[in-house]
Amino acid sequence: MDRAVLWLARGGGLGLLPKAPGTWGSLGGIVWAALLLVPGNLWFFIAGTLLGAGVSIWICGRAERILDQTDPGEIVIDEIIALPICYLGLLIPLHLNDTSIALADLAPNAATWYWVALGFAFFRLFDIWKPSPIRQLQNLPGGWGVTMDDLLAAIYTAATLQLIWQLLS
């Protein structure tokens, strides 16, 4: 069981890659977001995102106890599960305008990749910089502290992308 927990916490090995494990985990988060978009259903996307957050809290807390470390860099499931939140501020308006959010429809569009890259960059910025209160959330106990700071960094990213979208519209 411990091996499975660590494998998940490390994002299937992404957290063990040399240099910048959080960045590798965030790239894994783009894959997670893409998988959640396959059905093209906003509610599936939201449910998968919420389920991922709950699983991350448990996995991260358990991995900390196994490794006997607080928020070790090799734990990246928190970045992976947070990335889909970055794009909610864009997906919700698309859904409300009856635009398909299915991966098969979004992926061929060059503008999609611009927004994916922009979201990735802002998420990494907020995750590394940790403006208030992101930094304070790391003080929560166990998996809560590991996961919640990334969830808030993703919310900041979603708000930033939504603001940019509005300014460009």
Describe this structure in words.
The chain is mainly α and 169 residues long. The protein has one domain (2-168). The protein has helices spanning 2-9, 21-37, 42-67, 77-86, 88-96, 103-106, 110-129, 134-137, 142-168. α2 packs across α4 and α3 packs antiparallel against α9 (142-168). It is globular and about 50 Å long.
- The shape, in one word, is globular
Number of strands: 0
**SS summary, helix count:** 9
Spans of at least 5 consecutive residues with low confidence:
none
Structural class, judged by helices and strands?
mainly alpha
Question: How many domains make up the 3D coordinates?
Answer: 1
Note the beta-strand portion.
under 5%
Task: Tell me the distance between the termini.
Answer: 50 Å
Percent of residues in helices comes to over 70%
What is the succession of H and E elements? HHHHHHHHH
Draw up the topology in text.
Blueprint: H1 2-9, H2 21-37, H3 42-67, H4 77-86, H5 88-96, H6 103-106, H7 110-129, H8 134-137, H9 142-168
Helix pairs in contact: 1-3, 2-4, 2-7, 3-4, 3-9, 4-9, 7-9
From the structure above, extract its key features:
single chain; 169 residues; 9 helices
Brief write-up:
Helix content is 74%, strand content 0%. The chain has 169 residues and is mainly alpha-helical. The protein has one domain (2-168).
